[in-house]
Amino acid sequence: MRLTRLTSLLPLLLAALLSPLLMGALCGSGKNPPPPQYPDVAMAMAADLDRQLGPRLGMGTPTNSRGLYWLVITTPADLNNLERASPLSRLFGQELYAAFVGLGYNVQEIRKASDIIFSRSQGEFVLTRDTKALATTRATATLVLAGTYSVTPGGVRFNLEVIDARNNNIIAASSRTLPMDATVGAMAGLSPTAFVAPTVSTTDPATFEREMQPYMSRHW
After folding, report:
1. Residue 51 included in any domain
2. CA–CA distance, 210 with 208 (Å, rounded to integer)
3. Strands 169-179 vs 141-152: parallel, antiparallel or unpaired
4. Is residue 118 part of a domain?
């Protein structure tokens, strides 16, 4: 009888022993996930813009699919100096290029700053070339992706817009922040010393004597 009773309790004992392991597997190791890198942020923004473009342009049919649109991708410009681009923004533009090609768009990339001007009075990007001239008989319309980035202590904020070249309307917009670290800061053009903490702290002699006097009186 005792053996039968122990056998009946065996599932409960196993559950008690395994429950911490199961909870650990469900909850993870407790460590925070690694921060996203610039390819992750670029792909997330491309997916966000694509979700907005589909319903607004009526995509989803053989006669109106992504492959019928030309998307001109420009390099994000520094919000504080719109004629400037950093290595980070150029790499970000290339990641956007790859993401939208993967989504099925016909993509053209513009890297020359001379191809784009920024109208400060209207607060919008304008291509110096005629965007409508980029459309072909196979393309329904030309879309232009333009944006800016701004560097903050906590990260680099990207703001992107997709403009319909037929009417200059903004039909999709997305914003994301790339967390700051030494690599991101260097690619964004920040000085490497911005991420170097001092190894020795300094203080004035009076403060030193006041704070160290109790310690010295005990040991001397």
Report:
1. yes
2. 6
3. unpaired
4. yes
What pLDDT sits at residue 82? 76
pLDDT tops 50 at residue 207: yes
Q: What is the mean pLDDT of residues 210-217?
A: 52
119: domain CATH number is 3.40.50
The Cα–Cα gap between 29 and 20 comes to 12
Strand partners, 81: 78
Q: Domain limits at 99?
A: 38-60+67-190
Counted domains in the chain:
1
Q: Could you tell me the pTM of the whole model? A: 0.65
Instruction: Write the pLDDT tens digit of every residue in 138-170.
Output: 555 589 898 999 999 999 999 999 998 888 889
